[in-house]
């Protein structure tokens, strides 16, 4: 059974983000907040792979490619948040969240789910932004009406 390219590239996004954050944790750089911004590179890479594959297959319908790109990025986001939930519970749950929330500008003491739901919303917004920006980039390659 062949997996859809959107799911496959979403797994690539998840793997890249997971390895990046594990490396930051191992190097004790997880408290440097601006390094967290670089995870967007993995989202751009995965979505661009999907769009490049669609273009190579001759799929040049702009709305279909936008849906494909958004599906890829949202798959990566949902897998990443699921992995983060599992990682947080493996590290101690709410006691581990206290160390994370200090470095991410959360007010008070968020629970594991509050923390991850807020990151989920942030991830969905970044997925939409990545999709729109890459669709603008790839638009010049599609035939115009």
Helix coverage percent: over 70%
**Rg over C-alpha atoms, rounded to the nearest angstrom:** 17 Å
- Give a count of the beta strands, DSSP E runs of length 2 or more: 0
Sheet-strand content, in percent, reads under 5%
- Measured distance between first and last alpha carbons: 36 Å
Shape: elongated
Main β-sheet description: none
The secondary-structure element order is HHHHH
Estimate the mean pLDDT confidence.
85
Tally of helical runs: 5
- Structural class of the secondary structure composition? mainly alpha
Q: How many distinct domains?
A: 1
List key phrases describing it.
145 residues, mainly alpha
Describe what you observe in this structure:
By secondary structure, this protein is mainly alpha-helical. It has one domain (5-141). 73% of the residues lie in helices and 0% in strands. The chain contains five helices and no strands. The protein has helices at 5-26, 40-56, 62-91, 94-103, 112-138. Helix 1 runs parallel beside helix 3 (62-91) and helix 3 packs antiparallel against helix 5 (112-138).
What would a concise description of this structure say?
The protein is an all-alpha fold. It has helices at residues 5-26, 40-56, 62-91, 94-103, 112-138. The chain has one domain.
């Amino acid at each position: 059974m062949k997996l859809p390219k959107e799911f496959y590239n979403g797994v690539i996004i998840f793997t890249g983000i997971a390895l990046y954050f594990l490396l930051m944790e191992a190097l004790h750089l997880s408290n440097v907040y601006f390094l967290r911004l670089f995870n967007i590179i993995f989202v751009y890479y995965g979505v661009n792979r999907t769009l490049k594959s669609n273009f190579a297959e001759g799929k040049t319908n702009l709305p279909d490619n936008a849906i494909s790109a958004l599906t890829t990025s949202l798959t990566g986001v949902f897998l990443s948040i699921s992995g983060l939930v599992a990682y947080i519970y493996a590290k101690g749950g709410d006691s581990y969240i206290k160390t994370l929330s200090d470095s991410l500008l959360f007010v008070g003491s968020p629970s594991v789910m509050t923390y991850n739901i807020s990151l989920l919303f942030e991830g969905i917004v970044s997925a939409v932004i990545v999709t729109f920006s890459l669709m603008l980039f790839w638009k010049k390659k599609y035939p115009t009406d």
